[in-house]
Design a protein that fits this description.
By secondary structure, the chain is mainly alpha-helical. The protein has helices spanning 3-6, 10-20, 56-59, 64-83, 89-105, 110-113, 125-131, 137-143, 158-170, 173-188, 194-209, 217-228, 230-241, 244-266, 273-285, 309-320; strands at residues 27-33, 41-47, 122-123, 153-155. The two termini are 37 Å apart.
């Protein structure tokens, strides 16, 4: 009944779908600037999957502070599952913590993650299959909307994906199902009914960050609109407070600064001709961004419904995560 057998295609596909709607899954996927070619953006795969801040929270049994944090996290998970009708919530929360501990054990340390050379591993999909051969990457890539759109990915922690391959196989499908259920409820708890909102804030706001009181509902609503429809909100603000002539004025000022830099570079005695050439090339690549984008994001493909908050946020997240 391990995930690699019974859930051979379903689990990887669910990983992809979860990522599209912003929900935590066992590894992280994002878009970033290519570390060795700044003109490109690439898809990066890295470690993720745990609910606590970092791996040490799971791996230091003798640290009283971290032990207490694990206990609070387990209690939070158990409470959410109980509220959602899980009659074996205590067992489910324990299994969740066991799975996340297994994932934490194969994560890299902070020092390793700061190494730009060690974390740059360019792999095609055959390379992904070699790292995790028991995992259906094709199903994942299709569900995540990546299939056919990129030729390679940057894997920041190859040994994590290799270790994940083992954890994935050893973890039973019911545990994976409960993992996804918990991550989904936890991510959207702040947008559900008041008991979920209060439980979510008591843990994420008060227990984790020491914030005694939640923001008023109207303010949380404004923040959510800004997070989901940032440029649409910005466009309204710009129309009222930032006339086009101000943007033109600032762009002209920046162009004058760049022209002054070009002139000054040619008069610097300590620069070699080759270095001056490189400096001029960098100036040529400089793209000023003043006030607002030259081309606003088109939200016409995003469906918004006045009576479907969670659905709106899910669709907005999927819209934002689309790979062009």
């Amino acid at each position: 009944e391990a995930a690699g057998r019974e859930g051979e295609k379903g689990t990887p596909a669910l990983m992809g779908q979860s990522g599209e709607i912003g929900v935590r899954r066992a590894y992280g996927v994002g878009s970033k600037q290519e570390g060795r070619d700044e003109t490109k953006y690439v898809v990066e795969l890295g470690e993720r999957g745990v609910g606590l801040a970092e791996r040490d929270y799971y791996l230091k049994p003798n640290d009283a502070k971290l032990v207490a944090a694990r206990a609070k996290y387990k209690e939070f998970v158990q409470t959410l599952l109980t509220m959602s009708g899980d009659k074996a919530a205590a067992t489910s929360a324990r299994d969740m913590l066991t799975l996340e501990t297994a994932l934490a054990k194969i994560q890299w340390t902070k020092v390793e993650n700061r190494d730009p050379i060690k974390t740059y591993n360019k792999l095609d999909f055959a390379g992904l299959n070699a790292l995790a051969p028991k995992y259906d990457w094709k199903s994942y890539l299709a569900a995540a909307g990546i299939e056919g759109k990129v030729d390679y990915v940057i894997v920041s922690q190859p040994s994590y994906l290799k270790g994940f391959n083992t954890v994935y196989q050893k973890t039973t499908l019911p545990v994976w199902k409960k993992y996804f259920e918990t991550q989904l409820i936890s991510h959207y708890a702040g947008m559900l009914s008041k008991p979920y909102v209060d439980t979510n804030f008591a843990y994420k706001g008060t227990a984790l960050r020491g914030i005694p009181e939640n923001e008023p509902r109207w303010k949380r609503g404004v923040m959510q609109v800004e997070a989901s429809l940032g440029e649409a909100v910005g466009k309204v603000y710009v129309a009222e407070h930032f006339p086009p002539e101000r943007k033109v004025r600032m762009e002209k000022l920046v162009q004058n600064l760049l022209a002054a830099y070009r002139q000054s570079i040619e008069t610097i005695d300590w620069m070699s001709p080759e270095t001056k050439k490189e400096a001029q090339i960098k100036l040529d690549k400089f793209t000023p961004k003043i006030g607002y984008p030259n081309k606003w994001k088109d939200y016409s493909g995003l469906q918004i419904s006045k009576d479907d908050l969670v659905g709106n946020v899910m669709r907005a997240s999927t819209f934002a995560n689309q790979v062009e």
